[in-house]
Write a structure and sequence with these properties.
The structure holds two protein chains of two kinds. By secondary structure, chain A is mostly helical. Chain A has 15 helices and no strands. Chain B has 13 helices and 13 strands. Chains A and B meet through helix 5 and helix 11 of A and helix 1, helix 7 and helix 11 of B.
């Protein structure tokens, strides 16, 4: 039974925060290296597919109310397999934390705090996320509102400041490399989609059951996807596909090319100020989900023991993933994206097939909101 | 236990979070206003010259210099920049740099190091203007700019208003890098030269004293190397095609009087490039459209305003077409460099055909037939209802 409850809006906003920060820069750069100016098309395919995959997780969550993905995998596959699922998810969220944390840490290290020891940035950021996790998911969810407002502000300001250098022509020809290569390159978007899909396996049961809705997850993924796709569209129109692929984070190069006016010629610091809220939310949720997975696998009751031990592990993981930015970007391209795609598509699909085969979906009614609310 | 943990956390945070590692006090910084890059090709050394703003009191002391110009050498640009520390009492900071001047020696050798260093360096803004110097970049950095105490700021503002003539090109770090990394476009960078004979008030021999920088057309590159220069007139042909001539003045002969002129100011001029590819042979049609206003007539005429506008309209269209033709002859036939974006347009409009001709494009480009269509509409004769008429001699009656 989940004691913590989050509202529909909190859940919606959290999904957007989970998707956004890494996708606009790191994923866009990795995708651009494969597909050039078609990055935004390829990422659109990815997020479109992601919306249907998260629908499966939400559907399963509705059929097993109050249970996390690990708990209902136990009901479907037995204790041993559910332990394996739990271990896989714990490892996934630990690495996912390292990947997400490095988005902000590497921005800070490469553009602002170049002389600060990298390990110190990893430690401070992890301490911050540890505090957020200690306070709980409701606090993280509330902070996600700041993240959502920052996303909106930052995107608007960036679009305004890029107007002079934006050329629609650079987005042409559409599907320059062809339809299938674009589809193939959408695998890189799963590095972000998987975070939301698998986190939904833990967050969805926290929704107040009277307010559950399948469409909520779907539309959260679509909204997050749209918020993300605006960036590669503008990045391609300003930097061009050939230039985007040079950088670890093309979003920061986009910020370097953004000039709000003669009086605000630099956008980088504005970007980082607005960027950090979403990044803290994203990383904290990964930390939180890793904590839940470890608790469910080990059965440890005391949160604080898991949080402190995890903080030590996560600092180390973050350091080793990001200490060489080329290795970090290479890791995102392979094998991280492929592993994310396999896990985020494979696990919900196998669970769904098992639930169907064992008739687990027939016995329980999908929980719908009251008549005066939309959903289902 | 909780209190002890809180105290420990506060102490750790107080020690770690002040961020002293990257602390840089403003009085320790030497803010670069403009930079020039030259190369001693024989010794394979880069020469970096920076113009640094000197902190000064606001007491209006006109005798003190407002800038400090210093040079250093190195095997790479970064090496040379770091060697500036041997001469400078302050740490070099690029965040306020306004201008990058590429010396002719570097431009003819390769501009890859310049593009790489300045796109690599996170302190440099992508909007920093880039120009190519005729001769050494170094000499331009110690010259004056007229209206500004700090020449770097003067260059920047001069460049900002370049669009008023259309006789230069808009080149900044972003635009140069974007073109360099692209496989279907070439680079053109604004050129600078010295203007002699600028009058300096109060000087005994004004013409000999004042030496100012002026925008002098464009430098055309093929891949990373300078292949030639365009005059301001030839550059304007390029600006028409790249939609960079936003308020250009076009001067044509006055109707019925070869020795007199009429000037019009163009507005909203847009170039549309249409391409077609038949059996691997591309062809280009340039359609330029926009409007203009008559701003000066040097002679009287007996034409009505409508007749006058119609004649001027045709003359302006012919003049713009001639300017574009002049540019085409130079960049397409002589320099063989696709700064006109024909390759990019073919790529965008006919991707299948482009993929077939991509590798032969450098050889095909000089042979591409180009048709020019100019449609300029004279919308008004600014503030005047009638053309100038010489009523005293009865010309206008």
């Amino acid at each position: 039974m989940m004691n913590v409850k989050v509202s529909r809006t909190m859940y919606f906003i959290m999904i957007i925060n989970i998707l956004w920060d890494k996708a606009i820069g790191a994923t866009a750069s990795v995708t651009a290296r494969a597909i050039g100016p078609d990055t935004w098309i390829s990422m659109s395919f990815g997020f479109g597919a992601g919306a249907f995959i998260i629908l499966i997780v939400a559907y399963l969550g509705s059929k097993f109310p109050e249970k996390t993905i690990i708990k209902y995998s136990e009901e479907l596959w037995g204790k041993l397999l559910s332990k394996i699922v739990g271990i896989i998810l714990a490892v996934f969220f630990i690495v996912a934390y390292g990947v997400c944390a490095n988005v902000l840490i590497l921005h800070a290290k490469e553009y602002f705090l170049v002389e600060t020891p990298f390990v110190l940035l990893c430690l401070i950021f992890t301490l911050l996320c540890m505090y957020a996790v200690y306070l709980g998911i409701e606090v993280i969810a509330r902070y996600a509102f700041f993240g959502a407002v920052s996303i909106l502000l930052m995107t608007m300001l960036m679009a305004m400041g890029s107007n002079d250098e934006f050329h629609l022509n650079y987005l042409l020809p559409l599907m320059d490399r062809g339809f299938w290569p674009d589809i193939a390159a959408s695998v890189y978007s799963f590095g972000d989609i998987a975070l939301a899909v698998l986190a939904a396996g833990f967050l969805y049961p926290m929704l107040d059951s009277s307010k559950k809705s399948l469409s909520l997850s779907f539309w959260a993924m679509i909204a997050g996807g749209v918020a993300v796709i605006i960036w590669p569209v503008i990045e391609t129109g300003v930097l061009g596909g050939d230039m985007m692929q040079r950088y670890v984070f093309c979003c920061m190069e986009q910020a370097r090319a953004t000039e709000l006016s003669r009086f605000f010629p630099r956008f980088e610091l504005i970007m980082i100020v607005l960027f950090n809220a979403g990044c803290v939310v994203q990383s904290s949720i990964m930390f939180y989900c890793a904590k839940l997975a470890i608790r469910e696998v080990t059965g440890i009751k005391k949160d604080v023991y898991v949080i402190i031990s995890l903080a030590v592990i996560l600092t180390g993981v973050t350091y080793f993933i990001g200490v060489d930015n080329n290795n970090y970007s290479g890791f995102l391209a392979y094998p991280w994206a492929q592993a994310c795609a396999a896990l985020s598509i494979g696990l919900p699909f196998l669970l769904l097939v098992t639930a169907l085969a064992r008739g687990k979906l027939k016995s329980k009614k999908l929980l719908c909101p009251p008549k005066n609310q939309s959903g289902c | 236990m909780k209190k002890i943990a809180a105290v420990v956390l506060i102490i750790i945070n107080a020690m770690l979070l002040p961020g002293c590692w990257d602390m840089r006090e403003i009085n320790d910084l030497g803010m670069v206003m403009a930079v020039g890059i030259d190369k001693d090709v024989a010794a394979n050394l880069y020469i970096v010259t920076v113009q640094i703003a000197k902190p000064a009191s606001g007491d209006g002391d006109k005798k003190s210099e407002h800038i400090w110009v210093v040079s250093a050498e190195g095997k790479t640009i970064f090496d040379a920049v770091r060697n500036l520390a041997l001469l400078s009492s302050k740490r070099i900071m690029w965040a306020h740099n306004n201008l990058i001047i590429i010396g002719e020696s570097v431009a003819r050798d390769s501009i890859i190091p310049v593009i790489d260093y300045f796109t690599h360096n996170p302190e440099v803004r992508m909007e920093t203007f880039v120009v190519a110097a005729k001769g050494d970049a170094k000499q331009y950095l110690s010259s004056t700019s007229g209206l500004e105490e700090i020449p770097g700021l003067g260059f920047r503002d001069m460049y900002r208003y370049e669009f008023l003539t259309g006789k230069s090109v808009q080149s900044n770090v972003l635009r140069v890098a974007r073109r360099y990394f692209s496989d279907d476009r070439q680079i053109a960078i604004a050129a600078i030269d010295f203007e002699k004979g600028v009058i300096k008030p109060g000087a005994e021999h004004p013409e000999s004293e004042a030496k100012m920088i002026k925008l002098a057309g464009a430098a055309v590159f093929n891949d990373d190397k300078l292949v030639g220069w365009l005059t301001p007139e030839q550059t304007r042909g390029l600006a028409w095609l790249r939609n960079e001539a936003k308020a250009a003045v076009v001067t044509v002969r006055a109707p019925g009087n070869e020795n007199r002129s009429v000037s019009v100011e163009t507005h909203n001029v847009k170039a549309k490039i249409e391409t077609e590819v038949h059996e691997g042979i591309p062809a280009v049609t340039i359609i330029l459209s926009g409007d203009a206003h008559i701003d000066e007539e040097d002679s009287a005429t007996n034409l009505s305003m409508e007749e006058f506008k119609e004649i001027i309209d045709q003359l302006v269209e012919a003049e713009i077409a001639a300017e574009i033709k002049l540019t085409l002859d130079k960049v397409q036939k002589e320099y063989k460099s696709d700064v006109l974006d024909f390759g990019r347009t073919i790529h965008a409009q006919h991707k299948e055909e482009w993929n077939k001709i991509r590798d032969q494009w450098p050889a095909l480009f000089p042979k591409v037939p180009v048709k020019i269509v100019v449609n300029i509409e004279i919308r008004s004769s600014t503030t005047l209802q009638q053309p100038m008429k010489d009523l005293k001699r009865g010309i206008g009656q």
